Amino acid sequence: MIDPVEAFKKHTASESIPMPTVIPGSTPIYQKATETGNRALWVVFVIMLLSSLAFYIMAFRVPVQKRLFHILTAFITTFATLSYYAMAVGDGVGQNKILIKHTEKHFPDTYDTIYREVYWARYVDWSVTTPLLLLDLCFLAGLSGASMLVAVVADIIMILTGLFAAFQVDEAPKWGWYAMACIAYLVVVYQLAINGRETAKAKDNKTATFFAAIGGFTFLLWTIYPIIWGIADGSRNIDVNAEIIAYAVLDILAKPVFGFWLLFTHDNFASTASIDGFWAHGLGKEGTLRVGDDDEGA
Asked: For residue 89, which phi and psi values (nearest 5 degrees)?
């Protein structure tokens, strides 16, 4: 006769959940650029370098009084050249360690460890080049000094908060930094799209039309940057190679293409900005500091 208690024990033992022989998440995952991404960095480096040389040549072909936009634009691609060289040779790259927790009902929690490359040189580049680019737009529109200052400071805040988000390992603080960056971006848009458009209209129709076109082009590109960040560093839905190529295309459009468009069009304006005084001639005798001169009649 079969004992029902023993039969029940054998039945439950046969249906018990087996313990895993391999612990998930034990092998780190490395998300890094391959030869494809590295080649893209070198290509953009060359484009930025050649663009910089072209802008400097264009600057020397006009009087110093009319070089404001040339110098600003040349500095933009110069800093971008340094940034892309640093990224291409591996000097502007760090790693962000991310732990992803997996919770199972019948097993202990497990973790995936992800090491993703973060190109911090890109943020250094943006923290310098985007304020210079904004100055190009501000001077084109004739924006006030107060509005320029607000736009530039908001832009720097946008870049720094993006950098903090890129290295943040916890999801909630990361997206908190991201939200702050987006708010700062809206401040920049307001200063240029609203205040800048009004001041450009007060100059002349040609300047207003050109500012609306190149400003709209710039902010369309700038709106795509945080989208790329969200699916790359933010949620890691695309690999590092795709991230590099996406940013490379945006940087080429936002810097060399923007620069050539600005300089070729603005140089054809009859009312091209001309700056004298300190910009063109330095400090005159009246503005210098005199040390060691005896007062007359002393």
From this structure: -90, 0
Query: Which pair of tokens denotes residue 5?
Result: 């208690």
Let me know: does 51 contact 5? Beta carbons within 8 Å. Answer: no
| 87-115 exposure pattern, b = at least 16 Cβ within 10 A, e = fewer | bbeeebbeebebeeeeeeeeeeeeeeebe
Percentage of the chain beyond pLDDT 90 is 53
Confidence of residue 298 (pLDDT cuts 50, 70, 90): very low
Q: Give the position of tokens 């920049």.
A: 188
CA dist., res. 170 & res. 68, Å (int): 44
Q: What is the pLDDT of residues 214-229, one digit of tens each?
A: 999 999 999 999 999 9
Q: What kind and span of H or E run contains 42? A: helix 35-60
Residue 277: alpha-carbon gap to chain centroid: 34
The H-or-E segment that residue 97 falls in is strand 94-102
